[in-house]
Amino acid sequence: MIAISESAQAHFAKLLADQPEGTHIRVFVINPGTPSAECGVSYCPPDAVEEEDIQLEFESFKAMVDDKSAPFLEDASIDFVTDQLGSQLTLKAPNAKMRKVSDNAPLAERLDYVIQAEINPQLASHGGHIVLTEITEEGVAVIQFGGGCNGCSMVDVTLKDGIEGQLLERFAGEITGVRDATEHQHGEHSYQ
């Protein structure tokens, strides 16, 4: 479920040595499955362990995960990196904002997952996003642009070179194209 690197385990062991005996760590997700999901790590004293908690055993401590956070922490990793600028603990949880869908889930669910997990984070740097509105009988994925992408002068390039290319490659043989159904209105919200 959660991979913790050796350097991160050593870091946690050092921190826990200064805590009351029996203290472990808790890994959690606030607002799991939403765009505002945030992951965190905290101390978990013995009296804070819940019956439903999943306990992950490591060499010198346990990591507690509440049952609501668990599916969103699938494939998560924690690392502790030191470089010339200092040290940093990183927690990567690719499924925190949206639960990973299985390979045999319906096409619309798999498309939506890729849009939410991979494409929208790229568009977010310009304040934009897309939503899948339908998949036509011909296999065309119909999307709508929102936020900074609505009315942006580069939307056609973004659609053809970015989004469509990514989705056609990923869903080869399942979709035949991607079409924009947005009524674009250039305004202050538009990126360019």
UniProtKB/TrEMBL annotation:
Residues 2-99 form the Core domain. Keywords: 4Fe-4S, Iron, Iron-sulfur, Metal-binding. The keyword Glycosyltransferase does not apply. Coiled coil: none annotated. InterPro entries: ATAP_core_dom, Fe/S_biogenesis_protein_NfuA, FSCA_dom_sf, HesB-like_dom_sf, NIF_FeS_clus_asmbl_NifU_C. Homodimer. This is Fe/S biogenesis protein NfuA. It comes from Paraferrimonas sedimenticola. The lineage of its organism: Bacteria, Pseudomonadati, Pseudomonadota, Gammaproteobacteria, Alteromonadales.
